[in-house]
Amino acid sequence: xxxxxxxxxxxxxxxxxxxxxxxxxxxRKGSRRQYARIEDGDGWPTHITPDLAAFISAQTSVFLATxxxxxxxxxxxxxxxxxxxxxxxxxxxxxxxxxxxxxFITLGNLADNPKxxxxxxxxxTRQRVKIWGxxxxxxxxxxxxxxxxxxxxxARPSQVIVFKVLTWDANCPQHIPQRLEASDVEAALAARDxxxxxxEAEVRQLRAAAVQPGR
Length: 215
What we know:
This protein has three domains: 12-43, no CATH class; 50-171, Pnp Oxidase, Chain A; 178-208. Helix content is 33%, strand content 28%. It has six helices and seven strands, in the order H-H-H-E-E-E-E-H-E-E-H-E-H. The chain has helices at 20-29, 32-40, 50-57, 105-112, 142-148, 182-210, and strands spanning 61-67, 73-79, 86-89, 92-98, 115-122, 127-138, 157-171.
């Protein structure tokens, strides 16, 4: 007699963030039902979509959160020109890690505990994305470092950080102040000033034509 096999549904990807304690608080404060519906549906994405890849590639800043073996958290900022964050494939992000103050806290944490989080915040568009996963450090790989190093960027790479994506979530823009990159503001002002000069030249030509004899 054959017995029907019951397929066990894997835990939702959002369990990376929603621990039993978190879910208990959600239930107490009234949001658990909303997130349970998301879990019963498609849930949080586990792969980098084209839209997310474009968002990542446009960033000039990222926060990398790690923790010690006993759970002491640490957040490290990393920055560079647009494109310094590379989407390698649909579950992998990597970037050249530039030489800094040589405390090596992030590297030590990843050696003991690979669990990490990338927090991306775009002030211009008021968007934020949280990416859960695992990080690892790659040293002495000249080819990979050269591939990830931004062209003509004045920094010295020390190693490479490779981040394997587990899941991600995008938050609403509420309470995010809108700020613009200085280079974007400078470009907009330069374009405005150039247009003003063009219009002033046209005005001078029109005035000169208006006062010519016989007109």
